[in-house]
Amino acid sequence: MKRLLLILCLLAAPLWAVQPDEMLDDPALEARAREISQGLRCPVCQNESIDESNAPVSRDLRLLVRERLVEGDSDAEVVDYIVERYGEFVLLSPPREGANLVLWWSAPVLFILGLGIAWAAIRGRGRAAPPEGLSDEEEARLRELTGD
Amino acid sequence: MITELGHFALVLGFAIALVQMVVPFWGAEKGWRGWMAVADPAATSQVILVGFSFAALTWAFVTSDFSLRLVFENSHSAKPMLYKITGVWGNHEGSMLLWLLILVLFGAFASWFGGGLRPSFKARVLAVQAAISVAFYAFILFTSNPFLRLAVPPLDGQDLNPLLQDPGLAFHPPFLYLGYVGLSMAFSFAVAALIEGRVDAAWGRWVRPWTLAAWLFLTVGIALGSWWAYYELGWGGFWFWDPVENASFMPWLIAAALLHSAIVVEKREALKSWTILLAILAFGFSLLGTFIVRSGVLTSVHAFANDPERGVFILAILGVFVGGALTLYAARANTMRATGAFSTVSRESALVLNNVLLAVSAFVVFVGTIWPLFAEMVLGRTLSVGAPFFDAAFSPFFVAIALVLPVGAMVAWKRGKLGRAAQPLWPVAVLAVALGALAFALQTGRSALGPVGVALGVWVVGGAFADLWSRTGRGPLGQRFGRLTRLPRGDWGKTVAHAGLGVTIFGIAAMLAWQQEDIRVAQEGETYEVGAYEVTLNDVQEGRGPNYRTTMAEIEMMRDGRQVALLYPEKRVYPVAAMPTTEAAIDNGVLRDLYVVIGDEQDNGGWAVRVYIKPFANWIWGGAILMALGGLISLSDRRLRIGVAAAKTRSVRQVPAE
C-alpha cells in the first residue's frame, strides 16, 4: 500500500517537474535539454520521463543534462554520459542494436509479410475462382433433369 | 443479510453457468432440442442473479456497510453519493463483478435476440459464452471475493483514492468493460462457427453489430481516460503509451479490423477464416488487457490494484480460451471455404489492406508493451520502451491507414478501377495538400508534424464526405441533396466515423506541433506574454475544501487588451490520504485550450507558474465522439437490426466473379 501511495504521489504531482530555477538562460540550449529529457526515463518511476517526473533523482538528472550541455557536449554525448551511469534502463527508446532489432523490425517485417500473403491469396483466389458456366457434374445433372 | 444474499446469488449463478456450459453443448452435439433449449432460461437467470449480486454490493457501498472488507478499504461515509456508487467498481473485486455482470448480460442478449439463429448454433454460442463466465465466476469466488466480511467492523472507511473521485474516471471503467466484454460475443460466435464448421453471411451479419457496439464503447472508454489524463495530471498530456492504455488500445485496433472484415464476410462471403481469427484475437487482447491491468505484471503508473496470484489465474483463463480457440482454429480453419472471389483492385482488397495495417499497428503496440518483460526474463536486460519508440514505430502505419482510407472506402466491390474511385477525390487531395502547404508557410521553423496532420485530416474528412456525396448518384443538385437525406444510415455512420478519425488525427498533430509552453517564476501582479496572450498572476490564496486544503491562484489571460479568461488553478493536499493533486485550470475553446497550472511558492518570493496554449486540443476528443457517433448511427441502420437480418440472408445467392 505504501508503495502504491508513493507511485500515486509521483503520478499526482508532475507539476513539480521542470522547475523555473533549473532552466537555462539560453533558449536554444534549454530546448535541447527538454528534448533530451523527454527521451530519458525517471529511474524510480513507472513510465515517466525525467521531464515529467517530480522525483528528486529526476531533478538531479535534469540538472546533469543541462550541466553537460553547458559544458559543450553534443546531444548524443549527453545521452551516452547518462546511460553510462544509469544503464540502458533510462532510455525510453531502446537502442536499435542486438536483440532490440527484433523489437524495431518485427512489425515492418510482419507488414511486408502480411502484404505478400494477402497479395498471393487474392491473386490465387482470383485465378482459382470457378469458371462461369456449369461443371461437368452439373452438366450431367442438368441433362438428367431435362431428360436429354 | 442482503450481502449474504448477494454472495449466494453469485454462487448460484456459477452453478447455472456450469449447467449452461455443458447441457446445451451436449444437446447440440446430439441434436436434442430440449437440451439445447436449456441455454435460454439459464442465460436469463444468470443476468438476474449476477445483477442482484451487483446490486447487493452497490447497496453495501451506498449504506457504507463497513463490516464488508471491500467497502471499508474503498469507501468513506463522508464521500459524495456519486463516488460511493462509482466506488463499487473503483477497486479490483468490484470491477471484476462488473465485468462478469456485463459478460452475462451479453450472453443474455444472444439468447434474447438470437431467435433467427439455427438452434444448434445458438446453443453452442451460449455454451461458449457460459464457459467464459464460468472462468470469471471462479476467478471472483476463489481469488477476489467482494463479499468478505470483517470480524470487527471499523467505524469508518479508508476512502477512495482522490484521483479516482472524478467524473471522467468514474465512468471510464464501465465503458471499457462494455467494450472488452462485448468482444466476447464475437469470440463465442467464432468458436461456435469453428465447431460447426460453417460461416456464412448470416454469421457476418450477427457478429458485425456486436463488434461495432463493443468498438464504440471502447472508443468512448479510451477517450474518457485520455480526457481525464489531460485535465487531471497537470501538464496536458493525453496519451502516454502506458501499458494499461495499450491494453485497451490493442483490442480497439483489432476490433476495428474485425468490424471491417466482417463486412466482407457479410457482403461477399470471403475472408472467412481471417475474420474468425480476428474475432479470437480481439477477445484474446481483451483478456490480455485484463491480465495486464489486474496482475500489475508490467507495473505502470495506472496499476492501482495488483496482485500476482490473481495474475496467474487470469493468465490461465487467457491460455485456456485463446489457446483452445486457436487450436480449434488450426484444426478447422480450412473448412471455411470462401465463395466470393475478387480482384486485386476491389473494396475487398482495400479492406484486406485496412486489416493488415490495423493488425500490424496492434502488433507494434503489443511488442512494445511486452518487450521489457521479455527482455528481462529471456535476455536478462532491464530496459524501457516508452513514448519515443511508439511514436516512431506506430505512427507510420497509422499515417498509411489515413492515406489509403478515402480511396479504399470508394473503390468498387469485386473488381474496381483505381482511377474511377479516385476521381471524386482529386479535389479533396488538392485541398489537403494546399492547406498543408499553407500551414507549413504560416509556421516558422517547426517540424513537419503540423502540416502533415492538417493534410491528412483534410484528406480523411474530405474523403469521407466525397464518398457520401458520390453515393447520391448523378443528376441535378437538388435531387442529389434529396437523396443524401435518404441514404441508408450505414452510409452516414461510415462517413461520420471516418471523418471522426480524420478530426482526431488532425487534433493530435496540431496540438503536438503547435503547443506553446511557458514555465517561470511569476510575482503576484506581474504581467508577461505567452504567445499572443498577456498573462497576469493576480493573487494566490490558501483555502479549504470539504476534505482537502487548497492553494488557489487567480490568473488573468488577456488578448489584444481584452480579457479572455480568468482562471483559477489549484494545488490540493488531501490530508487523510496524504496526497497532493494538481487541478489545472483550463479555458476550453474550439481553436485552443488555455491550460494553467500553479506550482510551489519560491524562496525568493513569487510562484512557479506554467501556462500552456494547446491549439485544437478538443478536436482530439471531438473526433473520438464523432467516431462513436458514427458507430451508433451505423448500429441504428435497419439492415443491421438483428432478426430482420438473419431471416433475410437465407435468400442471398452467391455470384462467383470471373
Automatic annotation (TrEMBL), chain A:
GO cellular component, one term: plasma membrane
Membrane topology field: Single-pass membrane protein
UniProt keyword terms in alphabetical order: Cytochrome c-type biogenesis, Heme, Iron, Membrane, Metal-binding, Signal, Transmembrane, Transmembrane helix
Any single biological process term in GO: cytochrome complex assembly
Major location (coarse): membrane
Stretches for region Disordered: 127-148
Residue ranges of every copy of the CcmH/CycL/Ccl2/NrfF N-terminal domain listed in the record: 6-145
Location of the protein in the cell: Membrane
Pfam families: CcmH
Function: Required for the biogenesis of c-type cytochromes. Possible subunit of a heme lyase.
Family from the record: Belongs to the CcmH/CycL/Ccl2/NrfF family.
Record's protein name: Cytochrome c-type biogenesis protein
Natural source organism: Histidinibacterium aquaticum
Automatic annotation (TrEMBL), chain B:
Principal place of residence: membrane
Ranges annotated as spanning the membrane: 6-26, 38-62, 96-113, 125-144, 175-195, 207-229, 249-265, 274-292, 312-331, 352-374, 394-413, 425-442, 448-470, 491-514, 616-635
Domain (Cytochrome c-type biogenesis protein CcmF C-terminal) ranges: 315-638
Compartments where located: Cell inner membrane
Pfam families cross-referenced by the UniProt entry: CcmF_C, Cytochrom_C_asm
GO molecular function, one term: heme binding
Domain Cytochrome c assembly protein, chain residue ranges per copy: 89-295
Key words, A-Z: Cell inner membrane, Cell membrane, Cytochrome c-type biogenesis, Lyase, Membrane, Transmembrane, Transmembrane helix
Mode of membrane association: Multi-pass membrane protein
GO biological process assignments: cytochrome complex assembly
NCBIfam families listed in its UniProt record: nrfE, PRK10369.1
Family: Belongs to the CcmF/CycK/Ccl1/NrfE/CcsA family.
Protein's job: Required for the biogenesis of c-type cytochromes. Possible subunit of a heme lyase.
Protein name per Swiss-Prot or TrEMBL: Heme lyase CcmF/NrfE family subunit
